[in-house]
Amino acid sequence: MREIVFDLEVFPNWWCMVYNIPPNEEMFVITSKEPDYKKRILDLRIGNCLIGFNIKGYDLRILNAIISDADPQRVYETSCAIIEENETDAFNNYYFWNKFNFCDLYDDWKFGSLKEFESNIGMSIEESEVSFDKKDLTEEDIRDIIKYCKHDVLATVKLLEYRRDYVDSKKVLSEMYNIPIDKALKSTNAKLASVILGAEYKYRSHCDRFVIPEKVEPYIRKWLPSEIIDLFEIISDEGKEVQLFNNTVNFGVGGIHSTICENCVCRSDENEVLMNVDVTSYYPNLLMKFNYMSRNCKDPKMYENVYNLRVKLKQEMNEEEQKNGKTDKYYKLKSQQEALKLILNTTYGAMKNKYNALFDEYNASSLCYLGQLLLAALANRLFLETGCKIIQTNTDGILVKCQRNKIEQIKEIVHDWEKMTNFSMEFENIDLFFQRDVNNYIEVKSGGKTKLKGKWTNQADEKRALSNLNAPITHKAILNYYIYGTPVRKTIYECNNLFDFCFTSKTGYSYDKTYHYINGEPHIANKVNRVVATTDTKYGTIKKYKKCEDGKDRYDKIADLPEHCFLVNDNLDMIFELDKEWYVKFATDKIKELKEI
């Protein structure tokens, strides 16, 4: 099935569709002025898969209106209804579902808007200045609109390259489980999981009392205070914060998270060692070994079958690599086991989704509760029996700092937990760890390999396009300071790549406008802006504007942005006065905040 990447722009009396057929570079344009536009669009359906960003929410509904003979004015009314979430419009529905083969790159997306993606890979994020409600478009307006529409199609093609594994995994699962390819491409990971696991939606009466499984209850009650266990008696989405093993511990719907303190740095040395203690496939094993699989599945063993198949394929992949290298067979096995991993990791979330056939809120919540209690009990036992420091806990692991002569004792305690749960745990030594909070940290493993989470992931080049720019140079400076002792100023002043100094700033939907202050006066800016610090004081900061019903309109400054901002939304080769001292102070302040543990 051929891939067609496309985007639409709609105005009161005119619309255009731009599309590309990768890997070719040519852009094709269809407009409402062409007499055969309906036929051209209908022809695109044959043997093709339409790919775009948020096309379920907008573009496919517009195409449905167009091929249903809506004139440009009616198409515009539908566009307004979609944006305003007016579901009374006849075309603001999902009737398009069976009219097109499609894949929406917005599905299972966690990294913001298309404009943010464009900003993060260094593309221009300038937008057309033609107002979307303009009725009488000039030829110059039309050229401008098509130009920017082509730009967004190009960005979507690039996004498809970044999400190629995501799209291909649907094709792999289609082949492995005999799912029609069009159905697989249209589906989210959660939908595919429900199909593969044979789930059928069933209503279940509400039950809110959590029961600790018998085989692990004695361990949990021995190593956790009763007042903490009592917090889990009734299932709810309400978070719980407690003090335990010298951590502030948060129990929530996403799992356990705790830190010994925020803004800290710790390292291994000749006397003490940092160790990650992680559970292998924690949530999948909780599902299987404590019978928490969705009760909507005809065969609860189907999940275990998928798990075992992935283990088998992964083993075969490794054997093929060892014998023959990275052959075609190796890559086929790799793609199959990675596609199965998506299903395994998606199932728990699908069980919390009331619109998914796997929906089983009681089992999902019970699984989450048990996972948190088991990990908290282990962390508390390690703390009480060995005197180690629990630096942080997260959904499936514990980071400990202990005396080197306590390592064997810690491993014995962990082994005892493994026997009790029938889970496996992995140990990994860490040289250096520093965290802003549980969701933002940098971990330097033995050998120099880094793991970065949260805003600091901007350091990880292969993933940077999928997370907002946050002045990566400052994080490089912090890393270099701690790992190599390099002065912050040296790292920052030796860098001449403007991209590394950029922030991507987004104004959320709850705000009406964005203003950039120049000479003290507000100027309308984009909703998404790429920002750097400048020494030119005529440029001020960026503020978000919200009109409030009480008449007290809000102008809110955006966190972490410089007082003097220069916008580089278009050309990253622009000449201006970059304020490197601002970045030196920004990074230095972050270092000062970090407490040695």
Overview of the molecule:
By secondary structure, the chain is an alpha+beta fold. 39% of the residues lie in helices and 22% in strands. It is built from 18 helices and 23 strands. Strands 6, 7, 8, 9, 10, 11, 12, 13, 14, 15 and 23 form an 11-stranded mixed beta sheet that branches. A 5-stranded mixed beta sheet has the order 3-2-1-4-5, sandwiched between helices. A hairpin with a 2-residue loop joins strand 6 and strand 7 (247-252). The longest helix is centred in the middle third of the chain and has 26 residues, at 361-386. The N and C termini lie far apart (56 Å). The relative contact order is 0.09. The model has no long low-confidence stretch (mean pLDDT 92).
Short key terms for the protein model shown above:
597 residues, alpha+beta, 11-stranded mixed sheet, 18 helices, globular
Question: Gist?
Answer:
With 597 residues, the chain is an alpha+beta fold. The chain is 39% helix and 22% strand.
Percent helix among the residues? 25-40%
N- and C-termini, Cα separation: 56 Å
Shape: globular
Strand-residue proportion: 15-25%
Mean pLDDT: 92
User: Biggest sheet, in brief?
Assistant: 11 strands, mixed
How large is the count of helical segments?
18
The total beta strand count reads: 23
Low-confidence regions = none
Based on CA atoms alone, the radius of gyration comes out at 27 Å
Instruction: Determine the structural class based on helices, strands and strand pairing.
Output: alpha+beta
